[in-house]
Amino acid sequence: MSSPRPKPPASPAHRSTAGPVRATAALAAASAVLLTLVAVAWPPLLSFDRWAAETLHRSAVREPGFVHVNRVLTDWVWDPWTMRILIAVAVLWLWQRRERLLAVWVAAATVLGALLQTLLKSAVGRERPQWPDPVDSAHLAAFPSGHAMTATVVCCLLLWLLRLHGAQGRLWFWSVAAAVVSVIGVGLTRLYLGVHWPTDVLAGWLMGAGWAGFSIVLYERLVRSRRD
After folding, report:
1. What whole-number distance in Å separates Cα of residue 126 and Cα of residue 112?
2. CB under 8 Å, gap of 24 or more: what pairs does 111-114 form?
3. Which residues fall within 8 angstroms of residue 209, CB to CB, at 6 or more apart?
4. At what angle do helices 198-219 and 146-164 cross, to 10 degrees?
5. Residues 161, 90: contact at Cβ < 8 Å?
6. Rounded distance between C-alpha atoms, residue 14 and residue 21, angstroms
7. The whole model's pTM is what?
């Protein structure tokens, strides 16, 4: 009786992406759960959203100076178009270095991420918080937060590009710090200005990280593994 043949060892590229694949799957699962709870209007979740939004709005009404700071941050520093300009600069840099496929991949991941965000907003159709004394305004549906999702996708992709090109030491530390501050900060500004529910922002973070992770893993598996 012949013994079963041993399975061939996994390639280095597949081993290196095993962790990111699991993380991406976990993000996708968490996003799906949150999407479902929002879509069915789960009462405990809606109660938490309302309580947190009302608490922050009361603070914002009392602090017009801090509101102005948040509006500058959300409209200029962490605006989705600011994030897209950063990606455009990175894509042009890659193109000049003749890394054409990687440049197209990053651009496509960013564009498709924005399209996914738009489709989700239309599908869920969640209304934004309504206040008798608003401190800011926003259009389109609320879920997920476009600012939070765009910043997460862009920051994840930029960190990945830096890692691909050998970033380490102080450059890597400050790049990660800037990305974390930007992703968390933009979500908090949207909440403080009263234009999103907390779960909108959480969904933007989860879905943005999940989409960026999916794009990165797909590139590593389909492109880099073949080159290696």
Report:
1. 21
2. 112/211, 112/215, 113/149, 113/150, 113/153, 113/208, 113/211, 113/212, 113/215, 114/80, 114/150
3. 27, 152, 156
4. 30
5. yes
6. 10
7. 0.92
Q: What is the pLDDT of residues 147-197, one digit of tens each?
A: 999 999 999 999 999 999 999 999 999 999 999 999 999 999 999 999 999
Residue 131 gets the label, from left (phi > 0), alpha (psi -120 to 50) or beta, of beta
Q: Reduced to 3 states, what is the DSSP secondary structure of residue 194? A: coil
| CA nearest neighbour of 203 among 161, 139, 141, 136 | 141
Which token pair is 226? 């073949």
- Tally the residues of the chain: 228
Predicted pLDDT of residue 110: 98
Q: How many other C-beta atoms can be found within 10 angstroms of the C-beta atom of residue 166?
A: 8
For residue 145 the two structure tokens come to 């937060």
Q: Spell out the alpha helix ranges (H) of the chain.
A: 12-16, 18-39, 43-62, 64-72, 80-96, 100-124, 146-164, 169-192, 198-219, 225-227
Q: What gap in Å lies between CA 153 and CA 212, rounded to an integer? A: 5
98: left (phi over 0), alpha (psi -120 to 50) or beta: left
Tell me, what DSSP letter sits at residue 222?
Answer: I
Contact 204, 96 (CB under 8 A): no
Give me 51's structure tokens.
Answer: 């309580």
**CA count, 13 A, side-chain hemisphere, 86:** 21
3-state DSSP helix/strand/coil percent for the chain, to nearest 5? Answer: 75, 0, 25
